[in-house]
Structures are given as structure tokens and as C-alpha cells.
Design goal:
CATH architecture of the largest domain: 3-Layer(aba) Sandwich
Distance between the termini: 112 Å
Strand content: 25-35%
CATH topology of the largest domain: Rossmann fold
Strand order of the largest sheet: 2-1-5-4-3
Structural class: alpha+beta
Largest sheet: 5 strands, antiparallel
Oligomer: single chain
């Protein structure tokens, strides 16, 4: 009875069943959990209370398993259905019921309702997931840190972006280390829990790369899983801070401008309140802000007259309703100042985007008064002009009258001023060219005085006028208007013309002629010789009184003179009979001084006088001859020139040589049909703006200045070539033209790009060499100590295995350093004769494991391939790097092809690739069918750390490593790629001249030690310590020195006993090479072994050439150092 009471009072349900699950007992707690009466449970199968068939099958399997006397797993969880259809989660702990013989007769289960606990756990998981999503995607940087240790517990992605540290790096840091003032930050964080959080003013923080930024920080404490935690939120406000500073600077600049402005300024808000006056506004009107705090007060005081005030208000309201933001509306008003004075003021109002209005004011009273006086003066001038007897006009440069007086209307015969005003000025000129001359003179001199010309009246009657005119120009110097006075001089002109016509007609005709002229009568007597005749032939009237005298002087050879005269007379007679102008007769004539000139003869009969015209064309004939010779020389030079030459005139190509055709791959006929637009299309699209800009500068600049620039042309076949162009203005066919000379500099550009690439690689090599030296020193210490522990013995097998692992790691580290040095060409590869076809086959299986199966692997290998001198491991590295590069380019699959063959590089190729020597080579080609590369990317693929992959997916060292390895083998590498087609890398290795077989590898046995005394020189304490111990274990006596100067002192004191000096190259105070030189000065027979982390070439090679007897590379193990020492000591 006691146990029954206990079972009925406990909170957990207890149920008893037989072996198949039929309920034989259940306590009240079990009934309460299921929401059933005891009668609804007893005799029922426990399977009936399951929520679904899967749950029933699961429980049945459990009971069957338990009934087979297998220990039931505890606890068992299941979903049950209550009487009202609710779902509950139960935890059942099962046990067996047995009879007296120990047989299983049923089960007893303790049942707990864990529905609320499961719901709480689900809610907790959901809450944690929400927190994680919010934490990860928050734009502000969030850091969780331990409230006591300040160690960072978590950091979201924004932290990584802001500082540049990875999440793993954050988890190894403390909050104060992120601040530029760690002590202040630690002190502030220590008080967060006590103060319940804090927010600090903006302060400067520093990123991983050293960049500073300004941040706003807030921190709040809370408890996470029973642990006090601080949540710090950091917001980068650098840009906002800069914007605020810039706004402040702009504000101060505006205030300075406003305070010093020569104009009055006032700012009003949208309610009409005056917010600001500048000093000029106060000075101009005398009002203070308290006098006129708003527009209403201003209008009442500035415009006391109500009628005028309404006009002003109306004008302002019109401007406000019609103006847009930023639009200026000028107005002129008369303002009453505070002291009662009136001023004429020019206002400009503009509406700002802020809704405010800015109004500027300028006192124009003095200018207004001056303009008024000017208007009065102009009225007086107008009255005077209206009553003059001479014509007065004003017109535009184009000839439209803007003002005329009555006199000019009468003079020109028009009925009214309006009729004349409507008539264009050029109609008043009898000869339109006179107007053009007038305009030209005005443009040149600005005025003309009393020029005479013929004018035309309305009815067409011509009359003479004398004009005086002035050209007025605008504010910018442009021609504005013409003002002039016209006087009718017809009568005066007629009298003067009548007087001079009879006297000057012949003299003017002859004396002012640019040609030599002689006047004879019909009998050949010379009546007159003009000045040009005397100047040309040196003859006066006394020398040639008759024409016959001149013929004898001009042609001493009488028969020749007769032939010339006959031809001349024949031409004259023939033209006289036909009534046409005589044809010119060109002949050479002898002058009085014996010189010969070429003359064009003509003869005209006027009033029984014969006028002989002799045109001296000697110079023009000489120039024509010189021009023909010059053109012939130019054509010969141009046609034979390797430079492209063309002449562009009036936008059309007038001439082009064959080199131009060869450069562009267009025929000469095509080029000579081009205009400027076709030439522009010849330029690469990216360079066309440059060509247009240069052409424009040539037009606007000095025509004599030569233009010179470079750009790319696209030939007819689509090739791109670099050209350098020279453009100069010349005279071609007596007119201005452009002489274009173009030089193909494609080869030079390629050479410049290759030089730049080699300089980049040289810089990286120098860096790699220095790093390798330091790493090798560290590896030397590791490898040396491991060797000594192994040699001393006394260690268990497990420790021995660990030491061997350390030695292997150190040697692998040394190999890695050598690879870096090989990339930088600071170490010599371990070369031997190789067959590249065999090497491709040897690493084929490794390559197939490297690339996925969706990429097909193909080979085209030449059997009789020449041997090359190469390092097998580095060749393997090249092949792997190129295969990985191809794999990344073929994400969707493709073909990877390896090819080897014998090639010969000739001089023609070397001219555009100066780093390559002609000769026999072995070609290794690696091709893929990937996405290819653009030109801009190809130019940088061999640069270290350059990659197009996303961060974390590539180092950018693969192809640069290949480049370094190829160069260390004396080879040459090229790449061809095209977008969407793929890439091909071609590597050329110098081939052996003879048929050479591969070398066989040799095994080095552990060499013997010795008893000699050695001097070990190294600036690293750890290297000296481990080196001394290693050599002493081998039986040697070891002296040490920390630098070159100490080494010289030790050697001087022990010169006779020291058998070998082991010398590092890189040391402070005195370099290893300098120390070597000084040692050899002390003892020319001194033996020095170089031991350096640098490679065997470079500084070490120079040291050996200066007298060192050997070289060993760090890190070295005991076997290699003893072998090198023994070899040097035994050297004679």
C-alpha cells in the first residue's frame, strides 16, 4: 500500500504492459499526461496512443526488440496523441517485468512529458539562428569580447571588411589591440559592466594594412551562457567626417565671400524673414537686421511711397511666381536709405534649393546719372546730325541701316527714311566690290578717311561720293557697327577726271606696268622706254634709238636674231589677220651687261604707235625648273624611303608612297581616294580621339610647328601596328598642305614591353634572394641540431622518428627556398641532359590526377627530340603549373594538349625579341580550349601575385614561377590567347649541339671528419653555435667570429694553425666578400669555404671568382658540410 501511494503521488507517469504492449496498469500521472481516464487506458495497446503509423511501427519494433531479451536503449522518445487531439512529446525509460524464474512477462516504463522542454529548445535554436543571421549581416562591425580578459570571442563579416583581419585572426586578439590608444580603450572597457555600457566620441583606429579611419564606438554588457560578455558596435564614419569637414570649409568660404563681397547680400527664408545681412548691405542702406527683420518691414521703409511700393511688390511677386530654382531675375528700383537718401539699386534675386532666397544689390546711382547725361548728349548730337547737308549713317557690319539723316535720303534719291532704311547697304554701291574693300579696310585699320567711290541712286543713276567711316567694336572686340559721313562729289570728280584723262592715259598705262614696255612709231623709231624696260635690259633711249639697234644688242648672232624676229613678226601678222590677241613668243634675250633673260614678246598698235610688251619670265622659268627638279628628287626619295609619306590637302590625300601602302595594306589607288574621315578610321578606335585632338591642336597652333605623336593603326587585314607620325605644314602646288611621315615602331614597342617585363622580374628576384638568405639561416639551425642529436644517440625509437621528421621538414624547406630562388633566377637549377618528351610521359600520371576527367589529355611528342640541359624537378613544376592554369580556364571541360618538337630560331625572329639568340631549340607547347584572355590581361600574366581569380582562390604566382624557371634555364616563353578560343604557351629551351645521354645519379657516403683547426664566421649566434658543435663532433677544432673584422683579427692571431675559413657572405660591418679579399691579402694561400643562404650564382659566384675554394648552400646537413670541408682541406 505504501508503494501504491508513492506511485500515485509522483509527477512522472508509470505504465505497465505485457510483452506485446497491452496496458495492465497506469498511475494517475500517466492518465493526466494523455488526458484519458484509467478505464480508457487499461486493456488498450500502448500502440494506440501513437500519433501516426510510422510512430506505431517504430514503437512496435522497439517492443519486439526488447522482448527478445536485448537490453532496450534508454531513454526512448515518441510523439503521442491526447484525447483531445493534441500532440505531446514523451520520454520513456523502459525496464523489464520478470516472474520468479526470471522470464520476461512485460515492461514497466517511466513516462515524462517533455513537450514544453522541446518547444523551449526549438525556440532557443531559432532565436540563436536569428541572432547569428543578424550578427553576420549587420553593416556595422560587431565584436563580442570577454568582459574580464577583453579577448575577442566573435566578429562579424563587417569587422573583416573594416579592419582587413580574418575571423581567425580576430579570435586570437584582444579588443585594445585594435585601437591606436590601447591603454585608454582597456580602461574604458573595464568600466562597461559597471556603467552599463558607454558610447565614445569619434576616434581614430588603424586597419591591418596601417590605414587609419575614424569610428564611432558603442559598447554594452550582457551575459552569454553565464559568461559576462561585452558587445562593441563600431561604425566607420570617415567619409561622413570628411563630408562634415568639407561642409564646414564651404560654410566658412561662403561667409568669407559674403563678408568681403562688393555687393549687398541678404538671405530670406520661405516665410519672408531676413536671416542674414552682409556688411556691404548695411553700408549701402544703413539698416540693421533689427530695423528690417522681414520683407514687410523692408518694403515699408525702403519704399515709403505707397504707389511706388505697390509697383515694387507687384514686380517681386511676378518674379517669384515665374522663376525656377537657380534662375536669376534682375530688377532696378529706387530705394530710400535709413538716412533718407535715395539710391538707384540693381537687385538680383535667386531661389535656392533649400527654399531660401538670396538677393544681391548693387548701387548704380552714379552710373545711372552718367547714362542720363549721355542720353541728353545723344539727343543734342541727333539734332545736329538731322540738319547737316552731308549724309550721316549708322549700319551693322552686314549692311542693315540702324540710323540715317535726311541728307543721305535726298542724296540717294529715296522717298523717305523708312524706304532707305529697308534697303540693304550693298545696293547703294555701283560696284559691290567697293563695299568689300571698305569692310576689309575697316577691319584692318578701324577707320577710313575720304575714300572715293561710285554710288547708285534708287533709279540706278551713278554718282561719286567721298566717305569717311569708323568701325565700332563690341565689349569682346567683335565688329559691332559702322558709323560714317557721305558727301556727293560727282561734280568735282567729273572735272578732275576730264582734266587728267588726256594727260595720264598713256603714261599710267606704260610707266606703272610691271612689264618692260617700249613705244615706237610705225618706222621703228623708239619714242619711250618705261622704267621696267631700263631696269630689265640696262638700255636707255640713247642706247637703242631704233628697234634695229635693240635687235642687234639682244642677238649678237645675226642669223639667230633674224629667226627670232621672223617668228615674232609671223605671230604678230597672224593675230592681226584673225583679229585676236597675238600669241606670246618666249625667247632668250641678251641684256646690255651680257646676262641672258627669258622674255615673253607681245605687240599692240594704238593710234599709229606700236607698244612692245616684254615680260621678263626668267625667274618664273627658273622656279619652274627648280620645282620640277625638286619634285623629281622628292618623288625619288619618297618612293625609295622605308618611311610612309603622304600629303593631305583640302581634306583629301594628294600623294602617298609605296611604303604607306605597305604599312596600311591598302593600294595606292585606295589611299588616294581617302579623305580625313577615312584616315581617322585607319586609327585604332581607342586612339581616334588622340588623332582628332592632335589634328585640332595643329589647326589652332602655329602652322610652322611640327606635330609628333604615336598611335595604333589597324591594317586592311586587321593587324594592329604602332606608328610614330610627324605632321608638318608645307606648300604644295602653291597652296598649304600637310606632309605626313609615319614610321612603323611596332618592333620598338614590343622591345620596350619586354624590357619593362624583365625589369619587373629583376625587382622581384632581388626581394626573393634576400628572403631566402634569412630562411636558410633558420633552417640551418634546425637541421644542425637534429643531426647532432641523432649522432650523439641515446634516444628512443619514437624520438628518432620525430628527429627524422624534423630533418625532412628542414630539407623540404630548403628545397622550397631553392624553388623561390629559381623563380627569381637567384639559384642555379640542378641541371642534367633531359629528353622533354620523356619528362612529359614521366609526369603524365600526376598530370592526369591534377586535371578532372571532363578535360581530355592529349600529347603530340616528337620521338627524335634533341636533348636539353634542365632540372627534372623544375620541368615537372612547370608542367604542373601550366596544367593547373589550363584546368582553371576550362571549368566546363575541354582539351589540354602537350606538344614537343625540334625548332630553329632565326635572325628575323630575334630582331623583334632581343632577349633570344638564334640557334637550335626544343619547343614545349601547352594548349587549352578555355575561355582565353584579353590583351590587357595577357600583358600582366607573368607578374607575381597578379590573378583574375576571386580572393582566396589563387596566389598569382603560378605563371610567374614558370617564367622564372624558364629564364633560369636560358629559355624563352610566349603566350597566345584569344577570347573564347583558348590559350597556348610556347617554351623554347636551348638544345645540346650533340647527342647527349642523361647523367646517372650518384650516392654520397658519410665522409670522414678531421683534426684540423677551422674558423667559422657568421653573424647569427644560433648558426655559429650549431655549426661549431657539428664540426667538433667530427673531430675538428673550431674558432668562431661574429663579423668580418673579428674574423680578420682571429685569423691574424692563428694564421699558421687555421686550415680552413668557413665564411658567410651577408654580415654587418664588413661583407663576406670584403673579408675574403682581406684574408687573401694576409695569406694569399688561405683556403676559404663560402657557406651562404644565397644561391651559388650572384654574390656567391663573385666570391668564388675572387679566390674562395668552395661553396656550400644553407641549410646543410652534417654529411654535406663535412664533404665540402674535406674536399677543400685536401685541395692542393
Amino acid at each position: 500500500e505504501k508503494y501504491r501511494e508513492l506511485v500515485e503521488t509522483i509527477s512522472d507517469g508509470i505504465v505497465q504492459t505485457d510483452c506485446v504492449g497491452t496496458v495492465t496498469f497506469a498511475n494517475s500521472a500517466y492518465c493526466r499526461i494523455l488526458g484519458l481516464e484509467i478505464g480508457e487506458i487499461i486493456g488498450k495497446s500502448i500502440l494506440d496512443f501513437q500519433v501516426s503509423d510510422p510512430e506505431r511501427r517504430k514503437l512496435r519494433s522497439f517492443l519486439e526488440y526488447a522482448a527478445s531479451q536485448q537490453p532496450p536503449p534508454a531513454p526512448w522518445f515518441g510523439t503521442h496523441q491526447t484525447k483531445h487531439g493534441g500532440m505531446i512529446v514523451l520520454q520513456c525509460d523502459w525496464n523489464y517485468r520478470r516472474d520468479n524464474q526470471g522470464h520476461i512477462t512485460g515492461f514497466i516504463a517511466v513516462v515524462k512529458d517533455i513537450t514544453e522542454r522541446m518547444q523551449a529548445e526549438d525556440a532557443l535554436r531559432e532565436s540563436e539562428e536569428k541572432y547569428r543571421l543578424l550578427f553576420s549581416h549587420e553593416k556595422d562591425a560587431i565584436l563580442l569580447s570577454d568582459a574580464e580578459t577583453m579577448s575577442i570571442l566573435d566578429a562579424n563579416e563587417s569587422c573583416e571588411k573594416l579592419w582587413g583581419y580574418s575571423r581567425e585572426e580576430f579570435l586570437s586578439m584582444r579588443i585594445p589591440s585594435l585601437s591606436d590608444e590601447p591603454e585608454k580603450t582597456e580602461k574604458a572597457l573595464a568600466g562597461v559592466t559597471r556603467l552599463g555600457g558607454y558610447e565614445v566620441s569619434p576616434r581614430r583606429l588603424r586597419k591591418k594594412d596601417g590605414t587609419e579611419f575614424i569610428a564611432k564606438i558603442s559598447a554594452n554588457p550582457f551575459t552569454l551562457k553565464g559568461r559576462p560578455v561585452v558587445c562593441s558596435i563600431v561604425r566607420d564614419i570617415t567619409e561622413r567626417n570628411r563630408a562634415e569637414e568639407a561642409a564646414e570649409i564651404e560654410k566658412r568660404r561662403f561667409e568669407a565671400l559674403a563678408e568681403n563681397s562688393p555687393f549687398g547680400l541678404v538671405m530670406t527664408d520661405d516665410a519672408g524673414m531676413f536671416r542674414y545681412f552682409n556688411p556691404k548691405f548695411r553700408e549701402m542702406f544703413g539698416y540693421e537686421l533689427k530695423d528690417v527683420p522681414n520683407g514687410k518691414e523692408w518694403l515699408n521703409k525702403a519704399y515709403p511711397d505707397p504707389v511706388y511700393r505697390r509697383q515694387v511688390i507687384s514686380a517681386w511677386l511676378e518674379d517669384l511666381s515665374n522663376s525656377s530654382i537657380g534662375e536669376h531675375r534682375p530688377r532696378v528700383f529706387t530705394v530710400t536709405c535709413k538716412d533718407g537718401r535715395k539710391k538707384i539699386v540693381h537687385f538680383r534675386q535667386v531661389q535656392l534649393q533649400t527654399g531660401e532666397h538670396l538677393m544681391t544689390s548693387e548701387d548704380i546711382s552714379a552710373r545711372w546719372q552718367a547714362e542720363e547725361k549721355l542720353r541728353q548728349s545723344e539727343e543734342k548730337y541727333r539734332q545736329l546730325v538731322e540738319h547737316l547737308n552731308v549724309g550721316v549713317f549708322e549700319s551693322t557690319v552686314d549692311g542693315a541701316f540702324t540710323h540715317i539723316n535726311p541728307a543721305i535720303v535726298r542724296m540717294s534719291g529715296y522717298g523717305s527714311p523708312e524706304e532707305l532704311m529697308a534697303t540693304p547697304a550693298h545696293r547703294l554701291y555701283a560696284d559691290v566690290s567697293d563695299r568689300k574693300k571698305l569692310i576689309s579696310a575697316l577691319m584692318d585699320k578701324g577707320s577710313v578717311n575720304c575714300i572715293e567711290m561710285r554710288s547708285s541712286k534708287k533709279d540706278g543713276t551713278e554718282y561719286w561720293i567721298s566717305m569717311t567711316a569708323v568701325l565700332a567694336r563690341g565689349d569682346k572686340g567683335e565688329p559691332d557697327r559702322i558709323t560714317g559721313i557721305v558727301e556727293d562729289i560727282t561734280d568735282r570728280k567729273k572735272a578732275a577726271v576730264a582734266l587728267s584723262e588726256s594727260e595720264d592715259r598713256l603714261r599710267k598705262l606704260i610707266d606703272h606696268s610691271p612689264m618692260a614696255m617700249a613705244v615706237t612709231d610705225m618706222n621703228g623709231e623708239v619714242k619711250y622706254l618705261n622704267k621696267r624696260f631700263i631696269q630689265t635690259f640696262g638700255c636707255t633711249l640713247q642706247d637703242i634709238p631704233t628697234l634695229e639697234y635693240w635687235w642687234q644688242l639682244a642677238y649678237p648672232d645675226r642669223p639667230h636674231g633674224d629667226r627670232v624676229r621672223s617668228e615674232w613678226l609671223h605671230a604678230t601678222r597672224e593675230s592681226s589677220e584673225k583679229g585676236t590677241e597675238p600669241e606670246p613668243v618666249e625667247r632668250e634675250v641678251r641684256c646690255k651687261d651680257g646676262t641672258i633673260r627669258v622674255i615673253d614678246f607681245r605687240k599692240t598698235v594704238v593710234d599709229k604707235l606700236v607698244i612692245h610688251t616684254l615680260h621678263d619670265i626668267t625667274e618664273s622659268k627658273r622656279q619652274e625648273q627648280a620645282l620640277r627638279e625638286s619634285e623629281l628628287m622628292f618623288r625619288l626619295l619618297s618612293e625609295q624611303s622605308l618611311m610612309s609619306v603622304a600629303i593631305l590637302q583640302d581634306g583629301i590625300y594628294k600623294y602617298a608612297n609605296q611604303a604607306m601602302s605597305d604599312l596600311c595594306e591598302y593600294s595606292l589607288e585606295e589611299i588616294l581616294s581617302w579623305g580625313y574621315e577615312e584616315f581617322l578610321q585607319l586609327a585604332n578606335p581607342d586612339d581616334r580621339f588622340l588623332v582628332m585632338k592632335q589634328a585640332r591642336m595643329k589647326q589652332l597652333g602655329d602652322p610652322a610647328q611640327e606635330a609628333n605623336y604615336t598611335f595604333r593603326v589597324v591594317t586592311k587585314s586587321g593587324k594592329t601596328k604602332w606608328v610614330e607620325i610627324y605632321s608638318k605644314t608645307i606648300q604644295y602646288n602653291k597652296r598649304s598642305a600637310n606632309l605626313l611621315t609615319m614610321i612603323d615602331i611596332t618592333g620598338r614597342k614590343q622591345a620596350e614591353e619586354q624590357l619593362l617585363q624583365s625589369q619587373k622580374m629583376e625587382a622581384i628576384g632581388t626581394l626573393a634572394g634576400g628572403v631566402a638568405h634569412e630562411i636558410n639561416n633558420l633552417l640551418q639551425v634546425v637541421l644542425g641540431h637534429a643531426d647532432m642529436i641523432l649522432i650523439r644517440g641515446g634516444i628512443d625509437e619514437k624520438s628518432g622518428q620525430s628527429l627524422e621528421a624534423i630533418r625532412r621538414a628542414a630539407r623540404n624547406g630548403g628545397d622550397l627556398v631553392n624553388k623561390i630562388l629559381a623563380f627569381s633566377r637567384k639559384t642555379e637549377p640542378q641541371k642534367r641532359p633531359l629528353n622533354l618528351s620523356h619528362e612529359v610521359r614521366r609526369v603524365e600520371e600526376l598530370l592526369r590526377r591534377t586535371i578532372p576527367r571532363m578535360i581530355s589529355f592529349e600529347k603530340s611528342l616528337e620521338d627524335n627530340l634533341r636533348m636539353v640541359n634542365a632540372d627534372p624537378s623544375q620541368i615537372e613544376q612547370m608542367l604542373l603549373n601550366l596544367a593547373v592554369n589550363a584546368r582553371d580556364a576550362m571549368q566546363e571541360g575541354g582539351r589540354l594538349v602537350f606538344e614537343t618538337r625540334n625548332v630553329t630560331i632565326r635572325e628575323e625572329y630575334c630582331r623583334t625579341h632581343p632577349e633570344v639568340d638564334p640557334g637550335k631549340y626544343v619547343l614545349l607547347s601547352v594548349s587549352d580550349t578555355g575561355h582565353g584572355m584579353a590583351k590587357g590581361i595577357m600583358d600582366r600574366i607573368f607578374e607575381p601575385f597578379f590573378t583574375t581569380k576571386q580572393p582566396g582562390k589563387g596566389t598569382g604566382l603560378g605563371l610567374s614561377m614558370v617564367f622564372g624557371l624558364v629564364k633560369s634555364h636560358g629559355g624563352h616563353i610566349t603566350c597566345y590567347s584569344e577570347g573564347g578560343v583558348g590559350s597556348t604557351f610556347k617554351i623554347y629551351f636551348p638544345a645540346f649541339a650533340d647527342d647527349v645521354q642523361p647523367d646517372l645519379a650518384t650516392t654520397i657516403e658519410m665522409p670522414a671528419g678531421g683534426t684540423e683547426k677551422l674558423l667559422l664566421v657568421d653573424d647569427e649566434d644560433s648558426v655559429r653555435t650549431v655549426g661549431s658543435e657539428m664540426l667538433e663532433l667530427a673531430g675538428y677544432t673550431v674558432l668562431t667570429a661574429t663579423n668580418g673584422r673579428e674574423a680578420l683579427e682571429v685569423y691574424r692571431n692563428n694564421r699558421d694553425s687555421i686550415g680552413l675559413v668557413i665564411l658567410d657572405l651577408v654580415m654587418p660591418e664588413m661583407s663576406g666578400r670584403k673579408c675574403l679579399e682581406e684574408l687573401l691579402k694576409i695569406n694569399p694561400n688561405a683556403k676559404v669555404l663560402i657557406a651562404s643562404g644565397y644561391a651559388a650564382n650572384g654574390p656567391a659566384k663573385e666570391a668564388r671568382e675572387s679566390g674562395a675554394v668552395g661553396f656550400v648552400t644553407k641549410p646543410f646537413d652534417l654529411k654535406h658540410i663535412l664533404l665540402a670541408i674535406r674536399k677543400c682541406l685536401d685541395m692542393v
